[in-house]
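User: Sorry, what's this?
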Amino acid sequence: MDSLLHAIPVNGVYLPDFPWRCRYPREEWIIENVKWKSEKKLESLPRPIAVCGPSGSGKSTLLKRFLAEYKDYVDFSISHTTRKPRPNEIDGKDYHFVSREDMEKAIANGEFLEHAEFSGNIYGTSKNAVKQILKNGKLCILDVEMVGVKNLKKTDLNPKFIFVKTPSIEVLEERLRNRNTESEESLQKRLARAKEELVYGGTPGNFDLVLVNDDLEEAYRQLKEFLLPDIEGLKRRMYH
């Protein structure tokens, strides 16, 4: 088969009909057929990976390392946000930094899979960002807030969920203070949200994998162990 349709699976199967429609709240998302290197009939792509964790948990460090090591097979769905860039953050690489007006307009137009507001700023995952990664035949990684996780569970995206946390709230507070990027008011808001996230992250059934990022090397080893079966599956599909 020269091409195969990639979209959200129905009962775990990607349907080869054209066009195929995946229903989301308020809108239908049409995903076009995708060219593949192999001429053989291929299985469905791995489920997307949604990663959640409090600010300061180290999830960004873990994801950047994994993405760098497996860049040929994995791509990151860059979120949109209305907050201002931090030092060394690059628009289009770390986030798509947009105005609140543009973000609210896009949300109203149904362009986002999920969105949430925290500390006066909106964060969200656009449908188009995920669609492009699926079209390229790669494993899609999403970095989402707790509310975003809850919203994704209501869609047909069917991702695997990973929660990254520190061993204690005290360690988290120390990491946030050492970054020197937060006002005291902002830091306290993040800590209050983090306490909610830790409860949600520790609730059985909410996540497929919970990583305690006490030792970076060990946390990364566990992350790789969880995701390598998907990477190996992609290698077989792309080169055999």
User: Anything to note?
Assistant: Residues 1-43 have pLDDT under 50 and may be disordered.
